[in-house]
Sequence to fold (290 residues):
Amino acid sequence: MPTAIAVTSADLVLPPNDRQTPPAALLRAPDDQSLDDALAETTVLLEQHGHVVVLCPSSLPAAHRMRLHTIRTVLESNRIALLGTDLPPLGLAVLVRQLRQLSICDFGAGVIASAARLLAHYVYAGALLGTVARLDRVPVSLKSHAKSWLPGAQFAVLANPRPQLLRIGAGDERIQGPDFVTQLAVANGQLHSEWVTGTLAHQWQVRGVQETLLPADSPGWWGTPKLIEFAAFLPDVSVLYQLVASVRREVCTWCGIQLIGDRCGFCSATLARHAVREPAAALPAGPHGT
Fold:
């Protein structure tokens, strides 16, 4: 049975790339669902799927985070993985879809959970912003803060995998993108520009653009509603499978589940002997790749 992939907000569930990609489960906030109902729904998920992997954004309200830990404790279940991530909302939605794609492959739940850390390295998540005055997720210089008050100023910001910020039109500098084949997800906020789907898509030589709705948490994450969020990602499940399968598998010394990398997604135990490897050789290089 496929591992269940769960989210904390419905707008983190992007449309599937194919007919085989299963949906994600939604674990609602305390204000939207009683604890009894949440326990009942999670129990059904465990009965149907065996394991549940929950992607938790760093911006998740404390009450919602506590609800998830309460469910895990009350059910006394070590089959629920609560994975925190600092990815921006659209980048997280992309990662969620990738895990949904992999959930029907022949990977165990422990490998699926620990694959989230690996795959996050290959999501190039950023935004075009009308101001960086309230941006606190990426380092912003005093000079950039000052320029953000100029009329019509726009800033390209990359949050993952390596922070980068530049003002559009300030020179020949460009946002450093992936050197492998990707597609680009784009979500429009209150900013009008063709820079993302035109200039950036051309520079990164993406193989297609997918437009989607802006996640509700995006304006808060980026510090402004005047934005266009984007995320370049690996769309092909066969490439994702290759990437995960090429990493050495370990057995968690605490809970006994199979995993990749150096941390168990279910019990959070750390394996000191091995670090996550990034087998970039498994990725198909784009026209500008090496």
About this structure: DSSP finds eight helices and twelve strands in the chain. The chain has two domains: 4-122+236-282, 124-233. The first strand starts at residue 4 and ends at 7. Confidence is low (pLDDT under 50) at residues 274-281.
